[in-house]
Design brief:
The chain is mainly alpha-helical. The chain has 19 helices and six strands.
Length: 455
């Protein structure tokens, strides 16, 4: 049978897909069952031998997915099918203690927390890798002069490294969000049918704490039958936030690669790569476009995630089917686009000459602000200086002449600005403010966070 989901045949890395595979889900659920048994044994509810036996069978090497599915056809309950399959494999009396005092979502939600912990560690590694790549690029292009743009129009000069330094700062914030969110997102529960822990008796609190410490998770302090879904909402929204940043970078690369701009471009294998099936000259920013499209898919899962937070009373099952889609897709696709964007920036081609040509094409108009500021230094009022430069700019634009030449012809500026001062003031490399220092600061911050030198 052919695969119908692009995750099956086109998108996603093996490591992240493995986290959310059916085998991983079942294995993590059995890990939770084993941890529950060990907690019971530690408190004397069951013997250490019984806990050891339950731990032994809590493995896909012992309990097969196929057997669980066979049982599920009869029980129509996936978790109970796993419990029965584990019980079958237990020797002696240990089988009677599998799932003792627990409800399904004690196991399901805690296992999901283990998956989320593994997934968020992968995302954190992805972000660290991208921070490093961006910091290297920012350092390399620290002094590369480029025109800054607002409203898609020429504004004033920046450096390309400064642009990338902003991305470094943004990804560092995402890194902080991941680290801060992980304890909240990666939380399980062992509190029974409605969260009171009644079936666990007097050992309820001790068992819940022991299970979560065993598994390296936080626990829900006041659960219903489920872990609070605000935790999942935080995780999904964080991934959507990261994906949106990636789309922003991809959109910038797509714009800079436009034929009429031509300042940066994705790596293109000139020997083998094909840009178009009919336009042989085409060299398209396909990977950036791909990242932008997948980021939109990631964000599309935000709404169903919020809606899955709204459960009836102590819980219903409306969230379950939704989460089978949202969690795997969001993490797999976020990992995919982080990896892809890292590759794009590693091979990004910078056209420094084109950046200068674009600045020069403005005929000096992009240097209107520094000229205004220079006039105020010479004692002309700010508003008067603005009007002088505005009038001169309109004349330059209408006549197609360079702003420098218009200013030099003005009678009211003779004796105020020399030719040399006008030329120096209109040198784009002299008007990037603290851009270079901002690059230095963000590279240093990246080195501090990553614990290694940015080359």
């Amino acid at each position: 049978m052919s695969n119908s989901c692009p995750l099956d045949y086109r998108y996603g890395r093996a490591d992240m897909k493995a986290v959310f595979s059916e085998e991983s889900r079942i294995q993590n659920q059995m890990y939770v069952e084993a941890a529950l048994a060990r907690a019971h044994a530690a408190l004397g509810t069951i013997t250490a031998e019984d806990a050891k036996e339950i731990t032994r069978v809590a493995s896909l090497d012992v309990v097969s997915v196929e057997r669980i599915k066979e049982i599920e056809k009869e029980t129509r309950h996936d978790l109970m099918a796993m419990v029965k399959a584990m019980t079958e494999k237990c020797e002696g009396n240990a089988g009677r203690y599998v799932h003792l005092g627990a409800t399904s979502n004690d196991i399901v939600d805690t296992a999901t927390a283990l998956q989320l912990k593994a997934a968020m560690k992968i995302i954190l590694d992805d972000v660290d890798r991208l921070i490093y790549t961006l910091a290297c690029l920012a350092k390399r292009e620290r002094d590369t002069i480029e025109i800054g743009r607002t409203h898609a129009q020429f504004a004033i000069p920046i450096t390309f490294g400064f642009k990338i330094a902003g991305y470094v700062a943004e990804m560092i914030r995402h890194r902080q969000r991941i680290v801060e969110a992980m304890p909240r997102v990666c939380a399980g529960k062992m509190a029974g049918a409605v969260g009171t822990g009644a079936a666990l008796g007097k050992n309820f609190f001790a068992i819940q704490k022991a299970v979560m410490e065993d598994l390296g998770l936080e626990y829900e302090p006041a659960a219903t039958q489920v872990v609070g879904r605000d935790r999942y909402t935080e995780a999904i929204c964080l991934m959507a936030n990261i994906a949106t940043s990636i789309e922003r970078y991809g959109t910038e690369i797509r714009n800079l690669q436009r034929s009429e701009i031509g300042e940066a471009a994705e790596y293109f294998d000139r020997e083998k790569q094909v840009g178009s099936s009919t336009m042989a000259q085409k060299r398209n920013p396909m990977n950036s476009e791909n990242c932008c499209g997948l980021a939109r898919v990631v964000r599309s899962f935000v709404t169903p995630t919020f809606e899955s937070q709204v459960l009836w009373h102590e819980r219903d099952l409306s969230n379950s089917s939704t989460e089978r889609f949202t969690l795997p897709h969001v993490f797999i696709l976020t990992d995919e686009i982080l990896q892809k964007m890292n590759w794009i920036f590693e091979g990004l081609e910078i056209n420094r000459e084109r950046m200068i040509q674009n600045i020069e094409s403005s005929q000096g108009l992009v240097m209107a602000e520094p000229l205004m500021m220079k006039l105020t230094e010479k004692g002309i009022g700010r508003q008067d200086a603005h009007e002088i430069v505005r009038q001169s700019s309109m004349i330059a634009e209408d006549t197609g002449r360079h702003l420098r030449d218009i200013l030099m012809e003005r009678e009211d500026l003779k004796g105020v600005l020399t030719r040399e001062e006008i030329v120096a003031t209109m040198d784009a490399s002299n008007y990037v403010g603290g851009a270079r220092e901002i690059v230095d600061n963000m590279v240093a911050e990246a080195e501090k966070i990553l614990g290694k030198k940015v080359e």
